[in-house]
C-alpha cells in the first residue's frame, strides 16, 4: 500500500478561489494606497500652520442630539465608517468558511491558528513591557490587529512574484484577525452596557436577516434596517463595529435552491461584497485614517522619547516583535502537531516575511487605542504615534525580506524557463511563463 500524502500547509487554492482572491487583492491594494495618502495628509495637516483648522474639523459635531447622535466627525469616523469596514470583513469571513477553500478544516486551521498566535503574543509582550516599566495595561489589545489594506499594498509592490498561496494566507489571517479584534472590543472595551437598546437591536437585525435569507436586495428596505440596528447598538454602549460584523454574518453565502443552488453563480454575500468593498477600501477607511492619524509629532516628547514611554514601547514591541513571533510560532506548532509539511515551492522564510508584514497595524490598532485611552487625549496621541512607528518599522523589515524572496523566485522562474526552452529546443512545443489577469505570476511551484 502506498503511503498516504501528508497534509500540506499553505497549498494552492482552487482556480475559482484564486480568481476571487485576486479581485479582492486588487481592490484592497488600491485602498491601501488611498489609506497611505490619507494618513500622510493627516500628519501633514496636524504638523502644519493649519493644525488648528484640522483639529477643528475633527471635533466638529453633527447629528441629531435627541437621538444621542450628536457626534464629532472623528467619532463618526470610528463608529460609523468602520462599521462599513467590519460589515465587509463579516461578509468575507463567512464567505471563506462557507464556500471558500477554508470550509475544509484542514486548510482553515493554519491561518486561524496563525491569527490567534498573532493576537496573543503581542498582547503578552505589551503587558510584559508595561508591567516591568509600571505602565498602563489597558492598551494591551492595541498591537494585536493587522491592517489588511496597508499589508497588501506593501505585498503588491515588493512581492508580485511570490506564490498566490502566500497572498491568500495573508488575506485570510487578516480577516480572522479582524474577527478576534471585534470580540476583544465587544468584551473588553464596552465601558457601559444598556441592555434594553441591545435587545431592541435584535428586532431590526432579525428582520434584516429574514429578508436577506429570502435573497431580498432592495436597498430601500435593507439600509434603513441596518441603520436602525447600528443606532441601537450604539445606544447600548457596545461598539458599533460589532453591528457591522453581525449584519455581515446574516447575509447568506450560497444561492437558494430555486436559483440553482451553490453552482449557479455568486450568492448574496458576494454581491454585497462587490458593492461595499470599494466603499470600504476607497472611502470609509481612508476617511477614518484622515480623521484619526493626524497627531503632532512633537507631542509628549515626540519620536525621540517614544521608547521611554512604556505604553508606546509596548505597542511598538507588540507590532514589530510580537506579531511575527506569534504567527510563526503558531504556524510551526500547527505543522508540528498535525505532522504537516509546508507546501512544495514554499519556504519558512516566506512565511516569516508575511509574519513580519502582519506587524503593520493601523486601522483597528488606532481604533483600539482610542477606546482604551479616550479619543483626543494626550495618551491617545502618543499611542497613535507608536502605532505609526511600529507599522513603519514592520513594513520596512518585511520589504527587505520579501524583496529578497521575490528576487529568488524570479531567478528560479528564469532558470526553469531556460531549462524548458533547452528541453524543447527544435520541437516547437516550448511553453511560456504566464501571468494571470491581475499581473500575478502563474504556476508558483518551484523546487528549493
From TrEMBL:
<keyword id="KW-0472">Membrane</keyword>
<feature type="transmembrane region" description="Helical">
    <location>
        <begin position="381"/>
        <end position="402"/>
    </location>
</feature>
<keyword id="KW-0813">Transport</keyword>
<protein>
    <recommendedName>
        <fullName>Na(+)/H(+) antiporter NhaA</fullName>
    </recommendedName>
</protein>
<dbReference type="InterPro" id="IPR023171">
    <property type="entry name" value="Na/H_antiporter_dom_sf"/>
</dbReference>
<keyword id="KW-0406">Ion transport</keyword>
<keyword id="KW-0915">Sodium</keyword>
<feature type="transmembrane region" description="Helical">
    <location>
        <begin position="311"/>
        <end position="333"/>
    </location>
</feature>
<dbReference type="GO" id="GO:0015385">
    <property type="term" value="F:sodium:proton antiporter activity"/>
</dbReference>
<feature type="transmembrane region" description="Helical">
    <location>
        <begin position="345"/>
        <end position="369"/>
    </location>
</feature>
<dbReference type="GO" id="GO:0005886">
    <property type="term" value="C:plasma membrane"/>
</dbReference>
<feature type="transmembrane region" description="Helical">
    <location>
        <begin position="67"/>
        <end position="88"/>
    </location>
</feature>
<keyword id="KW-1003">Cell membrane</keyword>
<feature type="transmembrane region" description="Helical">
    <location>
        <begin position="29"/>
        <end position="47"/>
    </location>
</feature>
<feature type="transmembrane region" description="Helical">
    <location>
        <begin position="170"/>
        <end position="189"/>
    </location>
</feature>
<comment type="similarity">
    <text>Belongs to the NhaA Na(+)/H(+) (TC 2.A.33) antiporter family.</text>
</comment>
<feature type="transmembrane region" description="Helical">
    <location>
        <begin position="279"/>
        <end position="299"/>
    </location>
</feature>
<keyword id="KW-0739">Sodium transport</keyword>
<feature type="transmembrane region" description="Helical">
    <location>
        <begin position="140"/>
        <end position="158"/>
    </location>
</feature>
<feature type="transmembrane region" description="Helical">
    <location>
        <begin position="195"/>
        <end position="212"/>
    </location>
</feature>
<feature type="transmembrane region" description="Helical">
    <location>
        <begin position="108"/>
        <end position="128"/>
    </location>
</feature>
<feature type="compositionally biased region" description="Low complexity">
    <location>
        <begin position="424"/>
        <end position="448"/>
    </location>
</feature>
<keyword id="KW-0812">Transmembrane</keyword>
<keyword id="KW-0050">Antiport</keyword>
<dbReference type="GO" id="GO:0006885">
    <property type="term" value="P:regulation of pH"/>
</dbReference>
<keyword id="KW-1133">Transmembrane helix</keyword>
<dbReference type="Pfam" id="PF06965">
    <property type="entry name" value="Na_H_antiport_1"/>
</dbReference>
<feature type="region of interest" description="Disordered">
    <location>
        <begin position="420"/>
        <end position="448"/>
    </location>
</feature>
<dbReference type="InterPro" id="IPR004670">
    <property type="entry name" value="NhaA"/>
</dbReference>
<comment type="function">
    <text>Na(+)/H(+) antiporter that extrudes sodium in exchange for external protons.</text>
</comment>
Amino acid at each position: 500500500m502506498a503511503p498516504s500524502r501528508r497534509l500540506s500547509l499553505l497549498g494552492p487554492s482552487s482556480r475559482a478561489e484564486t480568481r476571487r482572491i485576486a479581485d479582492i487583492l486588487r481592490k484592497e491594494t488600491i485602498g491601501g494606497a488611498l489609506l497611505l495618502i490619507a494618513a500622510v495628509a493627516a500628519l501633514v495637516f496636524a504638523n502644519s500652520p493649519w493644525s488648528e483648522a484640522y483639529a477643528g474639523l475633527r471635533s466638529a459635531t453633527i447629528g441629531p442630539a435627541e437621538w444621542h447622535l450628536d457626534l464629532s466627525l472623528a467619532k463618526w469616523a470610528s463608529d460609523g465608517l468602520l462599521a462599513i469596514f467590519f460589515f465587509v470583513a463579516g461578509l468575507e469571513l463567512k464567505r471563506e468558511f462557507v464556500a471558500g477553500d477554508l470550509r475544509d478544516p484542514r486548510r482553515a486551521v493554519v491561518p486561524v491558528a496563525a491569527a490567534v498566535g498573532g493576537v496573543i503574543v503581542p498582547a503578552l509582550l505589551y503587558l510584559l513591557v508595561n508591567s516591568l516599566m509600571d505602565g498602563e495595561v489597558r492598551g494591551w489589545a492595541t498591537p494585536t490587529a493587522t491592517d489588511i489594506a496597508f499589508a497588501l499594498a506593501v505585498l503588491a509592490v515588493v512581492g508580485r512574484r511570490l506564490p498566490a498561496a502566500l497572498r491568500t494566507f495573508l488575506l485570510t489571517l487578516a480577516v480572522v484577525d479582524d474577527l478576534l479584534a471585534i470580540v476583544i472590543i465587544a468584551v473588553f472595551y464596552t465601558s457601559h452596557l444598556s441592555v434594553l437598546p441591545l435587545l431592541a437591536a435584535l428586532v431590526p437585525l432579525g428582520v434584516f436577516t429574514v429578508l436577506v435569507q429570502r435573497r431580498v436586495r432592495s436597498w430601500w428596505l435593507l439600509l434603513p434596517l441596518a441603520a436602525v440596528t447600528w443606532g441601537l447598538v450604539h445606544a447600548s454602549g457596545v461598539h458599533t463595529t460589532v453591528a457591522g460584523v453581525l449584519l455581515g454574518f446574516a447575509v447568506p453565502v450560497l444561492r437558494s435552491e430555486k436559483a440553482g443552488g451553490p453552482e449557479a453563480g455568486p450568492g448574496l454575500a458576494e454581491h454585497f461584497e462587490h458593492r461595499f468593498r470599494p466603499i470600504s477600501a476607497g472611502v470609509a477607511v481612508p476617511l477614518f485614517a484622515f480623521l484619526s492619524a493626524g497627531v503632532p509629532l512633537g507631542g509628549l516628547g515626540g519620536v525621540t522619547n517614544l521608547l521611554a514611554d512604556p505604553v508606546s514601547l509596548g505597542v511598538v514591541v507588540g507590532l514589530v516583535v510580537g506579531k511575527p513571533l506569534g504567527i510563526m510560532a503558531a504556524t510551526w506548532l500547527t505543522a508540528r502537531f498535525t505532522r504537516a509539511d509546508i507546501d512544495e515551492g514554499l519556504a519558512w522564510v516566506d512565511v516569516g516575511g508575511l509574519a513580519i508584514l502582519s506587524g503593520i497595524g493601523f486601522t483597528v490598532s488606532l481604533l483600539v487605542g482610542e477606546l482604551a485611552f479616550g479619543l483626543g487625549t494626550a495618551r491617545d496621541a502618543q499611542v497613535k504615534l507608536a502605532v505609526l512607528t511600529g507599522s513603519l518599522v514592520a513594513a520596512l523589515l518585511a520589504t527587505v525580506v520579501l524583496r529578497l524572496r521575490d528576487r529568488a523566485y524570479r531567478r528560479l522562474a528564469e532558470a526553469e524557463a531556460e531549462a524548458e526552452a533547452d528541453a524543447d529546443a527544435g520541437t516547437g512545443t516550448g511553453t511560456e511563463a504566464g501571468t494571470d489577469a491581475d499581473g500575478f505570476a502563474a504556476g508558483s511551484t518551484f523546487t528549493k
